[in-house]
Specification:
Length: 452
């Protein structure tokens, strides 16, 4: 009996990887790409896997988060990473490619595969008569967006991604930062970094003077809708006390080590302003800077935000961003297998599920494509060990707080903590890498044996 092909919608990095993994498993696949019949403002060619921003896949060294993800994907037979390695160009410590040759060869490779049919057409509705992998990326078309919204019944899209930086918890100075919730309501759930007046005014001055990143042309119109989600630097420019009446308000926060600020003898200890960090993951390894959505350049963010007491040595796993984006509320909608909870025969990958970066999109495509093929073949879907970068990334996006979910890049902060704390960052990352690769090798060996 002839197998019904799997439908992959979107020919970016995730869709290209998904289609390849499906075909390599011996299952026919139709890869839908709307270009050239319809174009997106970020694209300039008709090729699959077009790199629309940088030509870099991030740090190449395996003791860096992106590099570890490269290494894991090489072990798993990723077509994207294989072609990236073949068409690499000098880029210091990064894996960067000749983007034109890279995308063209991927297009030719997939188009010539006997089990891959490339259809150049827009898909306006999610097919319901076959297994489907959605990889439509951050610029999903309005028609498909509306259909996806009808299917989920949720207001789940963010059309302008205004996200705050995320900091590694163990890099926060706990001698300065204190745990408390405002007015002692509920369990203490925030880390609070207090500022005196001098520290606050210096911080505001540097924030106002810091260099901003430029929005792309097609993002300019979208930006105006976010008056209610202003960049922290814009708040600073609007007045000396604007931040103190907004996200940095010091009221209702009490450091038990200093005594109750409400008592007359302790009033002089009351902070002039407070930066709050909210727990981002279940283990408390990552902390989100509340209200610090920003359009500053990343180097400026690091410089200025490290002026905040307690964050002088902060390690940032994600910088603040304000750019056009479209992503699902993955914790509410998806299993870590990247299957929709409401419809297990529908999967998603890439930036649409709330991961950031080329390599993360590739990893999502690998997992969604592999699981789609396994569903056709009557095999159970898989997840990877959470000690691997791939496994931890998709565990995170499927289990984070739905209320505060923001897209996440690969980073060591989402991996389970090591049994023994290692203070030296480079050494710590090396141990994370060694554990990840050993666990991946053991897991993959068992998977191959079970499939034999």
């Amino acid at each position: 009996m002839e197998q019904q092909p799997i439908q992959v919608i979107g020919g970016g990095l995730a869709g290209t990887e998904a289609a390849w993994q499906i075909a390599q498993a011996g299952v026919p696949v139709v890869l839908h790409e709307m270009r050239p019949s319809r174009t997106a403002p970020a694209h300039h060619t008709e090729e699959l896997a077009e790199l629309v921003c940088s030509n870099s896949f991030g740090a190449a060294s395996s003791d860096r988060a992106a590099g570890l993800l490269h290494t894991e994907l090489r072990s798993l037979g990723s077509i994207i990473i294989r072609k990236a390695d073949q068409h690499a160009v000098p880029a210091g410590g990064a894996l960067a490619v000749d983007r034109g040759v890279f995308s063209h060869e991927l297009t030719e490779t997939l188009a010539s595969h006997p089990l891959i049919e490339l259809r150049r057409q827009e898909v306006e509705q999610i097919p319901t008569d076959s297994i489907v992998v959605l990889t439509t990326g951050p610029l999903t078309t309005p028609a498909l967006s509306e259909d996806l919204q009808r299917f989920t019944g949720l207001e789940y899209f963010s059309f302008f991604d205004a996200a705050s930086p995320i900091v590694v918890g163990e890099s926060i100075n706990r001698d300065i930062a204190f745990m408390a919730s405002r007015y002692d309501k509920g369990e203490a759930a925030y880390l609070n970094c207090p500022m005196n007046q001098e520290q606050y005014l210096q911080f505001r001055q540097e924030l106002c003077a810091a260099e901003k990143a430029e929005l792309k042309d097609f993002e300019q119109e979208t930006a105006k809708f976010f008056e209610g989600c202003l960049p922290i630097e814009e708040m600073a420019r609007r007045g000396e006390d604007t931040m103190r009446y907004g996200p940095l308000k010091p009221v209702g926060l009490f450091d038990a080590r200093q005594g109750d600020f409400r008592e007359p003898e302790n009033k002089h200890k009351r902070p002039y302003a407070v930066t709050q960090l909210r727990q981002e993951d279940k283990a408390g390894q990552l902390w989100n800077m509340v209200g610090f959505q920003t359009n500053l350049r990343w180097s400026e963010q690091k410089r200025v935000f490290r002026l905040i007491p307690g964050l002088e040595e902060a390690e940032f796993v994600r910088m603040g961003v304000m750019h056009r984006n479209t992503f699902l509320n993955a914790p509410q909608l998806l299993h870590p297998t990247l299957q929709f909870k409401q419809r297990p025969m529908l999967l998603a990958a890439g930036q649409l599920v709330g991961t950031e970066g080329y390599t993360a999109a590739t990893a999502g495509g690998w997992l969604a494509g592999t699981n789609a093929a396994r569903l056709v073949l009557g095999l159970p879907p898989i997840t990877l060990p959470v000690t691997t970068m791939i496994g931890s990334l998709f565990e995170f996006i499927s289990s984070a707080s739905p209320k505060h979910f923001q897209p996440m890049p690969p980073n060591f902060g989402i991996l389970p903590e090591l049994p023994t704390r290692i203070k030296n960052k480079r050494e710590r990352y090396g141990v994370y890498r060694d554990r990840a690769l050993a666990d991946l090798d053991n897991w993959y060996s068992r998977l191959l044996v079970s499939a034999a």
